Structures are given as C-alpha cells and as structure tokens.
Amino acid sequence: MPRPSPAPAGAGRLAGPADVLGLRRMAAGLNLLRRPLPFLCRLRREYGAVCALPASRPRTLFAFGPEQARQVLTGAGFVSDSFRHLRLPAGSPMMLLTSGLLRLNGTVHRRHRQAMQRAFSPRYVNAYSDAIVRFTDEMLDRWRPGAQVVLHEELARLVTRISLATMAGLEDPVAAERLNDKMVRLAAAAGHPLTALVQVPLPGTPYARMTRLAAEIEEILRALVADRRAGGAGGDLLGRLAGPEGQEGERLTDDELLGEAYTALCHDSVASSLLWTLVLLDQHRPWWRRLREEVVQVAGQAPPTPATLARMPVLGRVVKESLRLMPPASFGVRYADEGAEVDGCPVPRGAMAVVSSFVTHRDPATFPQPLRFRPERWEDARPAQHEYFPFGLGRHNCIGRNLALLEMQLVLTRIMQRAPVVLPAGTVIDPVVRISTVPGGTVRALVTAPGAEAPACVPISGSLTELVALPR
C-alpha cells in the first residue's frame, strides 16, 4: 500500500500525513505501544519539528522541535492528565493514588507543588546523602570481583531501598520489598493494553488486578500517613509533609498525601538512568577510565558527599550526556484545552500532544553529532531549557530532579570506588519504554577489582545500537 503523501504546512495548518478515516492515527497509537523510540525518530525525520494527525484538524500532535516542545509543555492551553485513558471511579483507591502532581492542573496543582517544594529543598535533599551511600554499600558488599551481577535488577533493588527509606521511612527491607512488589505489579496492570479496553473489574482481567493492588497500596500508605499525623514524623518526605513542617501554608489532606506519596515512590527512572550511564561508560572506555581516575583523585575511598561531587566535573558531564541520550521519560503527553495552539495554529480541545525529550535531545542544531556519547560537549554547551529537559519542562517538570541527580552521582561514585563494572561478551540490549526506558531483557555486568585494569571493551548488540552511535 503506498504511503499517503504528507500534507505541507501552511497558514493555519501544521505539517503531517494525510489520514483517511483516521487510520494513520490508529497506526500511530499502535506504534507508540510497540516500538515508540524508532517510530518517533522516523516521524521527526519525515515531517520535521511538528507532525499533526490529521494535518487539517489534529487529534494527535507530535512536537519534536525545541520551540514546539516549549509551546506544549509551558503553554497555558495544554494540560496534564496522566491517566485520562482510564475511567476511574471518584474516590477509588486508584483515583486517589494517581491524583498527584503529574495529574493536577491549575490552582490545585500550584498548592500541591508549593507543599512538595519545601520537602525537596536542597537542605533536605542533601540530608539523604548518608542513606544513599549506606544502601549502595550494602549492595556492593555482595558483589565480588570476577563475578557477574544482573545489573538492572541490582540497581532497581537499590533504588527501591533508597526511595522507600527517604520518601516513606521504610527501612525494613522485607516491608520495603513487599510494597515495591505491589507497586511494580500495579504499574504493569495499569499499563496493560487490555486495561483500557476492559474497564470493569472482571475476575482475571488486568483492570481487576489494578483495582485490587491499588486498594492494598492505599491501605499501606494510609497507615504511614496516620503514623506521621500521630507524631511519628521523621526525616523522610512523608514525615515532612504530614508533620508540623508540612503545615506551613495550606495543609494537604490525608487523601492528597496518598497521591503525592505514591507519585514520589514511582522511582524506576533513577535505576534506568544509572543503568544507561554504566552501559554508555562501558562502551566508551576512555570516559570509563577518566571517571575512575577522577573518583580516585578527588574522593579516594572515602564515602562521597555533596561537597565531593561538586569537585568532580567529569562525573557531572558524564551524567548530563547520559541523560541527554537516554532521558528517563522518553516521551510524555499533554492534552489540548481551550486556546491551545502550536506555531500559531489552533489545536482542537481534547487533542493529544506528544513531546519527546528523546527526540528533541537529538536535534543536531543544538547538539552536533547528536547520536554520539560526547561528555566533552558539556564543557561549553549551554542549551536552553526547552532544548535539554531530561526531567521535563514547565509547570509539571520533575520536582525530585535534584534528588535524582544526587542519587545518580553518589551511586556512580561509590561503584567506581569499590566495584567498577563492565559488560561481558554477548550482551544484547533492546530498550523498551515502560514508565521509563529500560532494557527489554537481562543485562549482566562483570565486577572488577578497584584499581585493576578492566578487560577489553566488547561491542554490544541489540536495538540500542540503532538509537546511539556506539564506537566499533
């Protein structure tokens, strides 16, 4: 079947393909589910900075150019609604859990954001450093030079421990693992294609699993909120929000705290970002060695602190470049409200606008050789906020970005100090998009001894090599 010819942009019209009977829009939805990253990159190549389906009156819009992404993410005419595709009963556990910052808009969003902003201030974030290093050391105590570890599982388990301790005060590894298991299964059920098609809790359906798991998680989080309200406030995020410190200004209700606690505990973006950074370092051994040398010279074997990180420019550049090539959330969605427009063209109310930092970060006008891992670019690169936004942009940017960066840098430093890792021969990496971009299969890593020369780099295979220009 021949490809429909693209409709050119013009006055009052955005560029995009012809879309007879909405078939192109349906195909786009399927491609976003199946292979979103290659699909989004192909749309950018074929249609440029913006692509509308259909071009005459778009129901789906892809904003790829930095300026177009800015218009969608900061424009008053676009709103956030992460679970619009699900019809959730008012007051249901799933509705309560998902009614956090990522879903709220307007004055309610501003009130929640102000309350959360205090809990994520630099003073509080830096106070988590000791816990981050302690949990990282517990992981590294199990690693032995010459042995292989399942890297993505180890990092996910570590970040889970850190997140549940710093966000909800759960230090008990058994209780933390139990809650995390429920959250992982809830995310899988909510993201299952059948959940949107069969939105009734019939036994055995993903929707029924989602409903049951949401109720179980609500019960656990509500008990934690009650404990903090009763005077059990600690140094964790929930304690600060529920305790006296969180009562400055307008206090969040228990139901509101549930939504914000659940939002804060959705933590797999840090684990995936750590994994991609270690993969990119392995495939670019000069940078692997430069980072290890900097760690040894600046930190030695002492536990790193925020002050240590401030004296490690190579680490900062490596992390920035990794987040450019493999941002934690590869794409996000906004919905057009009254007055929405892109490039001066009106966008109908209810239309879905897709913005992809993964694609925008590959704009050669901003980043020469955009598919290459080049941390040295950050010696003088000063992109605008809408040209580089790994943690989002506008009103709904990630409020925990400073904590995520601190966590990434502390964990990477400690790994380089105690147990640097490399990828073994035969590694295949196929990125898939879930909540974050993660490997579709098992990724193992070989643990090396501190100070030992790493084995020779072995090129990897898999679809990652189509998305990043790796050295050969």
Describe this structure in words.
With 472 residues, the protein is of the alpha+beta class. The chain has 2 domains: 6-88 and 330-360, Uridine Diphospho-n-acetylenolpyruvylglucosamine Reductase, domain 2, CATH 3.30.43; 99-328 and 390-467, Cytochrome P450 (Cytochrome p450). Helix content is 49%, strand content 9%. The chain has 20 helices and 14 strands. The chain has helices at 23-34, 36-47, 66-74, 93-97, 106-119, 122-126, 129-140, 151-168, 173-191, 193-197, 206-232, 237-242, 254-265, 268-283, 285-299, 306-309, 313-325, 357-360, 401-418, 464-467, and strands at residues 6-7, 16-17, 50-53, 60-63, 78-79, 148-150, 332-336, 341-342, 345-346, 352-355, 421-422, 431-433, 437-439, 444-447. A 5-stranded mixed beta sheet has the order 3-4-10-7-5. The protein has a 3-stranded antiparallel beta sheet with strand order 6-14-11. Helix 1 crosses helix 2 (36-47) and helix 8 runs antiparallel to helix 14 (268-283). The chain is globular. The two termini are 37 Å apart. The model is unreliable at 1-5 (pLDDT under 50).
